[in-house]
Amino acid sequence: MEKVLTKILDQHRKEKGSLIALLQRIQETFGHISEENVAWFSRMLDIPESRFFGVITFYPKFRTSPVGKNTITVCCGAACHIKGADKLLDTAREALGLSDDEDTTADLSFTLQKATCIGACNIAPVVILNKQVHAGMDPVKVTKLIKGYEREEFLGYL
Amino acid sequence: MSSQPIEIKVCLGTSGSAAGGEEVLRMFQHRISEQGIEAQIGRRCTPKKVGCRGFCSRDVLVDIIRDGNKTTYQSVTPIMVERIVQDHIVGGTAIAEWTVTDEYASFHEKQHKIVLGPCGEIDPESIDEYIAMQGYLAARKAMTRMTPDDVIDEVVRSGLRGRGGSGFLTGEKWKVCRREEQHPKYIICNVGEVNRPLAEGNPHAIIEGLLIGGYAICASKGYLYIRERYHRSVERLRIAIEQAREKGFIGPNVFGTGFDFEIEFSFGTEAFICGEETALMESIEGKRAMPRVRPPFPAVQGLWGKPTVINNAETFSNIPIIIGRGGEWFSSIGTKESKGTKVFTLSGKVRNNGLVEIPMGMSFRDIVYGIGGGIEGDKALKAIQVGGPSGGIIPTSMLDLGLDYENLAKVGSIVGSGGMVVFDEDDCIVSVTKFYMEFLQRESCGKCTPCRVGTRRMLELLTKITEGTGGDEDLRTLERLSGVMAATSLCGLGRSAPNPFLTSFSHFKDEYLAHIRDRKCPAGVCTALIIFSVNEEQCKGCGLCKRVCPAKAIAGEVKKIHLIDPDRCIKCGACFRACKFKAIKKQ
After folding, report:
1. Left (φ > 0), alpha (ψ -120 to 50) or beta: where does B119 sit?
2. How do residues B116-126 score in pLDDT, each as one tens digit?
3. Which residues in chain B have their CB less than 8 angstroms from residue A81's CB?
4. Which of chain A's residues have a Cβ under 8 Å away from the Cβ of B285?
5. Quick count: other Cβ atoms within 10 Å of Cβ B103?
6. Hey, is the C-beta of B436 within 8 angstroms of any chain A C-beta?
7. Could you give the CA distance from residue B244 to residue B211 in angstroms, rounded to a whole number?
8. Which of A21, A116, A119 sits opposite B439 (nearest CB)?
């Protein structure tokens, strides 16, 4: 663990990168930014923890709790909204068995996110599963998409 | 037999890929190599990927260019590839029933594609194709035959205005930065969500524009500010930068002129506020993206306290064209104060959803009915929202308004980044306004009080109205808050946040009053104000509504009239959509 952190730290010092770049790297490596990691970097870089948390809590993309193996993102931009993005979100929540204040399944297989606008308005409403954009979604397709994913590998719409 | 190669262009923009473009391309490559097509017909066949050409509602689009004739197929799936290869590529006969309809022509006819022109034609991952269409010639011309001041004069002459937010004259902005003595200087290209098709379809134009801009203001470094999540855009830009570096267009001593220029990515995060220039700089510096007090303006004191120019990717894409063809040519397009073209993502309830580029000054009618092909399902157009979440809502009575910076400002909207959402009779204006306010409230950075508190209070009041508990005094409060926010917010986000409310309230006052005084939502959207019931004359007792109801609120026996229990009904509308006899009433 310490080794991985040191590697990130060295790279950060070498590139003279910004705090955001550092946080992005931590999140890329661990999937989220834990309090312990913040404490460690704060000590090593002599930057107060409050500065870290100031940045972390400002940007919605930074997360402090573990992320699921797969990420499903529902676009909630204007074009998707009027074509029923809210219903897609509810459906996804239901299919994954998530309550209103949860975003990740207990077995860490899925994390559900909302996106503001991903710029694919002309094929709204869209759902992004990992890196793949799925166009013209409806509740039935969302359920199939989630069910079709058996934990790690997408086996097609079932 | 002609030996001219056959070209196969598969659309692989965000939407093309979503529709299965990758598989279609793979299938073409597979078929052609497996069956030895090239040997069979004695000429080369090159399937290649191209960027988005706009007509996304019929993706995957595939062009076959055979003997100089271009045929475009729509909604292509991997299964269709075999027949296209056999009949068209080998046999030479196009499959008429799969080709695009007249709509495709009318969609493109009225557009004026300058920056989008090469998108969908060239391979975005090949610098050679870009060079073949005179790419980087403008940059070479600027650096070897023009002084930085000449370049700026040419941009001023073109009348190009920023395609991102406020529409400031690009040339003037550059001039201020050019005059600054302090070095180094920086130039930043913001690649927003609407710029994705440009980054994916013709990334080299952005790089070339950034390069010319860097030369004009004497910057040594350019930043591409883009969200990491736009994987495809990032990838194509990355490839473009590498290729340009190999050719010596980026790096030390560009074109042998002694001008050094480097381009670096800065990965942004999902935050609307980063569209504001000073907030964006704070973000590049690794801080909370909160806008700075101006003056000093970024052109004087920007990134890392140095003179900085920020423009968005569409603005930069216009630069090589302006330098190449001249500012005068560019200024011949558009209206008196707004020159050139603007790219919009036409979306919502319009039939032909897609990416369009129109000359400034085109009327909304031409856009929605001409290019867009009218409203889906022939419903009635209700309003058009332009310029993103903080743009204004334009009613049908203004359909003939020409779209440019001045006219939009007059009706309380902005050109913004170029979102255009079309609403039909089924959309509730109050609910839509609340949706935008929800977004703006969430995205408010919290630095200044009018915006932080104002967006929150406006959202609460709009929520009250959609839930049927609003009063006339709430409307007065909303108006008062709007005035304060517009006048006293620190940045454009807070100042423009009241736009959706102000414009919708002035044009759709009746709808607001119906929510407040009659406790009714005329469009039947606000769930607190609608009731679902069965129209007994039309109910055939098929039982479909009962089966789809997730709340088990519908009772009834087969072939007998069904009934909805209003206490159990969660107003999801599943029965309304499912009923084939239109027997469910929504009031």
Report:
1. beta
2. 988 888 999 99
3. 435
4. 18
5. 15
6. yes
7. 10
8. A116
Distance of alpha carbon B57 from alpha carbon B75, whole angstroms: 9
Residue ranges of the domains in chain B?
Answer: 6-100, 127-331, 341-424, 429-517, 531-586
Query: Which residues from chain B sit within 8 angstroms of residue A82, using beta carbons?
Result: 348-349, 421, 423, 427, 432
- Topology (CATH) of B429-517: de novo design (two linked rop proteins) (1.20.1440)
| Residue numbers in chain A where pLDDT is lower than 50 | 151-158
CATH of B531-586, one of 3.60.130.10, 3.30.70.20, 3.40.50.720, 3.40.440.10: 3.30.70.20
Distance between CA atoms of A102 and B261, rounded to whole angstroms?
A: 47
User: Tell me: the pLDDT tens digits for B369-379?
Assistant: 999 999 989 99
Assess whether pLDDT exceeds 80 at residue B224: yes
pLDDT tier for residue B1 given thresholds of 50, 70 and 90:
very low
- pLDDT, tens only, B518-569: 999 999 889 889 889 999 899 999 999 998 888 889 999 989 999 999 888 8
Report the distance separating Cα B153 and Cα B147, nearest Å: 10
User: Measured between alpha carbons, how far is residue B480 from residues B346, B429, B444, B448, B476 in Å?
Assistant: 33, 20, 19, 18, 6
Q: Chain B closest CA to A2's CA: distance in Å?
A: 24
* Residue B348, phi-psi category: left (phi > 0), alpha (psi -120 to 50), beta (remainder): left
The confidence band for B2, taking pLDDT boundaries of 50, 70 and 90, is low
- Residue A118, chain B, CB below 8 Å: the answer is yes
Q: Which of A117, A122, A130 to mutate to probe the B interface, most B CBs <10 Å? A: A122
Written out in words, the top-level CATH class of the domain with range B127-331 is alpha beta
Instruction: For each of the domains in chain A, give its residue range(s) and CATH number, in order of start.
Output: 2-58 (no CATH), 70-153 (3.40.30.10)
Q: What is d(CA B344, CA B562) in angstroms, rounded to the nearest whole number?
A: 47
CATH numeric code, B341-424? 3.10.20.600
A48 contact B CB<8A = no
Question: Which chain B residue is nearest to residue A52, measuring alpha carbons?
Answer: B287
- Summarised one tens digit per residue, pLDDT across range B143-186 is 999 999 999 999 999 999 998 777 899 999 999 999 999 999 99
Confidence of residue B3 (pLDDT cuts 50, 70, 90): low
Q: Which residue has the tokens 């779209």?
A: B403
Residue-level pLDDT at B5: 86
Optimal mutation site among A18, A19, A20, interface B, most CBs of chain B within 10 A:
A20
Q: Which residue of A has its CA nearest to B14?
A: A120
| Topology at the third CATH level for domain B6-100 | Glutaredoxin (3.40.30)
By C-alpha distance, the chain B residue nearest A83 is B348
Is B559 within 8 Å of chain A by CB?
Answer: no
